[in-house]
């Protein structure tokens, strides 16, 4: 059986990566695609690397043009996907939103951090957050999934075992994350302009990055109480990858063996989480192009602190690969179909 899949917002980096993954999926067909800038033209007019791999003319960005699809991915900026999601669901089409419109369960929090119009606020409290390693059973059988952000994926997966164990002083968590430039999107800015970014490393949006409430929402759910973090994002001049180094004070004396065991046990059944150790700390190059999240916990006995290092490809596990994981779960397929392949080293 082949499922018909649509992509709205196909011209961005995320859209191109979704196509790359779906073309290698044995049980889906890309049946429709659209964007604002390439209507009436071949998808490969924008994604030249897909030349002769996909023969598909982009349609207008209207829900009715995707009514024949079983599932649609929305790869749109915040404030633009909620109306389409509502219309598609009404047509009986499953939706995975890779944007930010469905990730926050509280509408007032969304308004505070994004300040954008939302056309379906009443759905937010019930929308499932699409992190399969945490919410797999809730994802199955849903019609709408909020695909996690890239930074949040690296941080939530990095901290989940510790919060479940209750080993952390929750007011001491500091997340230092560095992202490749594709995380900033295709639109050119002063910060992403080549002469400014090349040979440079820059912190940005300190204390105000919009992924902060998403991270805190999910960490609080894991901890069972409110968690506030310091989140320090940086851009680094490479195409792909996120490396998060997370530090926190332990609330008891631990050992390296306790940490290693906790992480191995928590993720024992997870195909796409690989636990490293302090002698082989995660590298972005080791996960490039793959759906893996590599994690290593480190015990610092001198300071009674825990250090966690996690690495993902921001376009795959941080976006499209995770979206395909969610698609497989929604459609009742093997969760790893289309994303089970080696790393591009």
The CATH architecture of the largest domain can be named as 2-Layer Sandwich
What is the subunit organization of this protein?
Answer: single chain
SSE order: EHEEHEHEHEHEHEHEEHEEEH
CATH superfamily grouping of the largest domain: Dihydrodipicolinate Reductase, domain 2
Secondary structure: elements and pairs:
Elements: E1 3-8, H1 13-22, E2 28-34, E3 71-74, H2 82-90, E4 94-97, H3 107-114, E5 128-129, H4 132-139, E6 144-146, H5 150-165, E7 174-179, H6 194-197, E8 202-203, H7 212-223, E9 230-235, E10 242-249, H8 256-266, E11 273-275, E12 293-300, E13 305-312, H9 316-330
Parallel strand pairs: 1-2, 1-3, 3-4, 4-6, 5-6, 7-9, 11-12
Antiparallel strand pairs: 7-10, 8-9, 10-13, 12-13
Helix pairs in contact: 1-9, 5-7
């Amino acid at each position: 059986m082949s499922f018909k899949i649509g992509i709205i917002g196909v011209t961005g980096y995320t859209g191109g990566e979704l196509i790359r993954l779906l073309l290698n999926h044995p049980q889906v067909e890309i049946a429709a695609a659209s964007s604002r800038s390439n209507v009436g033209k071949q998808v490969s007019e924008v994604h030249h690397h897909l030349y002769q791999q996909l023969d598909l003319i982009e349609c207008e960005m209207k829900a009715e043009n995707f009514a024949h699809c079983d599932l649609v991915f929305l790869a749109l900026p915040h404030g633009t996907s909620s109306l389409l999601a509502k219309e598609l669901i009404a047509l009986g089409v499953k939706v995975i939103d890779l944007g930010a419109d469905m990730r926050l369960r509280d509408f007032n929090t969304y308004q505070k951090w994004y300040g954008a119009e939302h056309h379906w606020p009443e759905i937010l409290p019930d929308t499932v957050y699409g992190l399969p390693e945490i919410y797999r059973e809730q994802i199955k059988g849903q019609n709408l999934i909020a695909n996690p952000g890239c930074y949040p994926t690296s941080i939530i997966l990095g901290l989940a075992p510790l919060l479940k164990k209750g080993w952390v002083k929750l007011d001491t968590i500091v997340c230092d994350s560095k992202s490749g430039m594709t995380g900033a999107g295709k639109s050119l800015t002063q910060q992403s302009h080549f002469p400014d970014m090349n040979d440079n490393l820059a912190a940005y949006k300190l204390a105000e990055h919009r992924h902060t409430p998403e991270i805190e929402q999910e960490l609080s759910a894991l901890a069972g109480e409110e968690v506030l973090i310091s989140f320090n994002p940086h851009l680094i001049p490479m195409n792909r990858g996120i490396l998060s180094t997370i530090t926190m004070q332990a609330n008891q004396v631990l050992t390296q063996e306790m940490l290693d065991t906790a992480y191995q046990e928590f993720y024992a059944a997870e195909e796409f989480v690989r636990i490293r150790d302090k002698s082989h700390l995660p590298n972005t190059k080791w996960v490039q192009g793959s759906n893996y999240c590599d994690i290593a916990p480190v015990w610092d006995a001198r300071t009674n602190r825990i250090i966690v290092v996690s690495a993902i490809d921001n376009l795959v596990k941080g976006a499209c690969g995770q979206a395909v994981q969610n698609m497989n779960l929604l459609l009742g397929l093997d969760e790893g179909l289309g994303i089970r392949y080696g790393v591009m080293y």
